[in-house]
Give the backbone structure.
Amino acid sequence: MMLEAYAAGKRDEIHTDVLLKARQACYKARDAFYSCLEMQSDKKPTEIGSVGLLYPTECKRSRDEYVMNCRASWVKHFDRQYCKTKRTQRLLDDRETRRGV
Amino acid sequence: MLISRFIFFSANRRLARAPNLLQRFGPSKRIQSCGYVKSAKNNYKKPTSHPVMNVETQSSRSWSAYVIPAALLGFGGLVAFLHYNDERRAIKKGQGNNRGYGAVAAPIIGGPFTLVNTENQIVNEQDFLGNWVLLYFGYTSSPDIGPDQAQMMAEAIDTLESKENLKVLPVFVTIDPQRDTPAQLRAYLKEFDPRIVGLTGPVSAVRQMAQEYRVFFRKVEEEGDDYLVESSHNMYLLDPKMKVVRFFGLEYNAEELSKEILKELKKHQPKAE
């Protein structure tokens, strides 16, 4: 039966980059990168990250740390989430400056 | 034949008079209609003068004469039918809903499954009978939601066991069986709680179970071996008979989860005894 074959045949390879330690390292690098972005928000973003995220050259090093510590799909996921929150934040903040919106 | 014609004529006269009365506000119209009716009456009084026209007008008029009584009868029949239906469906005062509010009026979610656990043993739902089960469908490569949910599950189980002394079995079924081997699951779940049972298996078995539990999952952002799995994040609470009692979405945290599970258990206790 298929199940028996499955139980017997799978090799014992573990992806360690999703286990606890790796996850925490990834989260730390991610937070460092985003705080760098916040700090340098007045600088002009010239570098392109993934999924349309732009960041200034000052944050390049933390970006590299971040990309090294996390999986590519995770990087994309977090970047997308960050852009979304930034956009909603901008919409909420603009309420005072814009009229009639 | 003359008698029948007379009956038709009297019926028609009644009909002709009714529109006459209605046209009271149009004087010119009245005169016109009067004239028309009078001429028709004159026609009828002399049946032999215009036989062809008589027959024609008679047949058209006879059909229109039947419309209103037929409509009235039909309407009466409809009213009677509805009334009868209402009487039949009415629940008498006092009987009410005997099942009470505990019954789950929902589609039956769940079903038999056969998967492999972290010790490479084949497991099916019979092995879980008699336990309360908290079931979660996730995968180890989840960036943030998976670990959060697993952590929450572990915390809730812990709270229930230490404070209320209630045993609920946490089960983590992977929706990414191609990457999550039993060894991978074991290493992953060990970090949260050793009690969490991990289940995986061949893709077809996992897909069948997900279908039974109405869980949606899909690979996204695929780049070769690196992908995320989008899924409907739901945690299912099953009673000892393996029936789905409740499901919890992402908005619950550990305390709320343990509180809700406690509520469900207490609700089902009297029935068990």
